[in-house]
Design goal:
The chain is α+β, with helices and mostly antiparallel strands and 298 residues long. Helices cover 20% and strands 38% of the residues.
Length: 298
């Protein structure tokens, strides 16, 4: 019995420090990495943001390659997006760096449960046929992802629906809904012809992704509504922009469109709500006699 106890204690002494050492090492490296993450996101000088970006991008890839990194949460990296799908087969990191008022740069990494790290290279501005093409990781449509859905298809196939946002310039932003899937060889592709819309001529078209470009001073919602089992988005209309030098842009009109899931597709639904505004939304409420509103809204 004493011999058994001895071996149990010896095994515990050997095993526990290795795990603790790994976690401590990752925690120490994360602390240093969080400094660069903060600077690249919040520094007032563009040159400081870009220098911190270079350090962060290099060090983050190196840390993710270490043993135990897949299960480490990286909670101190508060300025980047960290998404894990329901099946926990991978996790996706995305972040944005503001290099100048009209230069926003996007970066991303996918880490699989098996330990593979896949860099995402932003080629949004060079891409053609955005709605009708698949793109590999080397031609990623860069954005910061804020939500992810896990979609199970027949024959045990899975793909993920990503919701992302990118700032094009000081005047316009884009939100996109982009499917992601892995091939049998483990390669990553974005885009899948699952978004269907019946056109006026009766023909049905299928898009690989959804894109919504809108004025940067507007608040636009594009997300999944679990209660309705539907992707919902603000319906956008063209209006002259309010920002100096902006020109025409798109703003929400108070109604919504949707894509309802049916088997392997998401089918377009027009005008979920029809509370259409007479004029484009304004940053602050306009209280005038025509509307009969007082300062407290009664």
């Amino acid at each position: 019995m004493k011999l058994v106890v001895f071996f149990v204690l010896a095994f515990s002494i050997l095993f526990v420090p290795v795990e603790v050492c790994t976690q401590t090492s990752l925690a120490e490296k994360e602390l240093a990495l969080s400094y660069y993450c903060d600077v690249m996101s919040n520094a007032s000088e563009p040159r400081h943001r870009l220098k911190a970006m270079e350090e962060f991008n290099t060090q983050f890839v190196s840390i993710l390659a270490e043993p135990g990194a897949y299960d480490y949460p990286f909670d101190s990296l508060k300025w980047i997006s960290k998404l894990v799908p329901d099946d926990k087969q991978c996790r996706i990191f995305t972040w944005e760096v503001n290099a100048s008022p009209d230069d926003f740069r996007y970066f991303g990494l996918i880490q699989t449960r098996e330990g593979k790290i896949i860099p995402l290279t932003d080629k949004f501005r060079d891409a053609e046929d955005l709605s009708g093409s698949e793109f590999p990781a080397e031609q990623w449509l860069g954005s910061v992802y804020y939500n992810i859905l896990t979609i199970k298809e027949k024959k045990n196939k899975t793909y993920y629906v990503l919701f992302g946002m990118r700032r094009e310039n000081r005047f316009e932003n884009t939100k996109l809904v982009d499917p992601l899937f892995f091939t049998s060889e483990g390669e990553v592709f974005f885009g899948k012809p699952v978004f269907r819309k019946k056109e006026a001529d009766g023909q049905t078209t299928a898009s690989h992704r959804l894109l919504f470009r809108y004025s940067s001073d507007s608040k636009v919602t594009v997300n999944y509504n679990p209660g309705m089992n539907m992707i919902m988005a603000d319906h956008l209309i063209a209006r002259m922009g309010r920002l100096p030098g902006q020109g025409q842009s798109f703003v929400p009109d108070g109604s919504y469109i949707g894509f309802e899931r049916e088997e392997s597709f998401w089918n377009y639904i027009d005008k979920i709500a029809t509370d259409i505004m007479e004029t484009a939304p304004r940053p602050k409420p306009v209280l005038d006699e025509r509307k009969g509103k007082k300062i407290f809204g009664n």
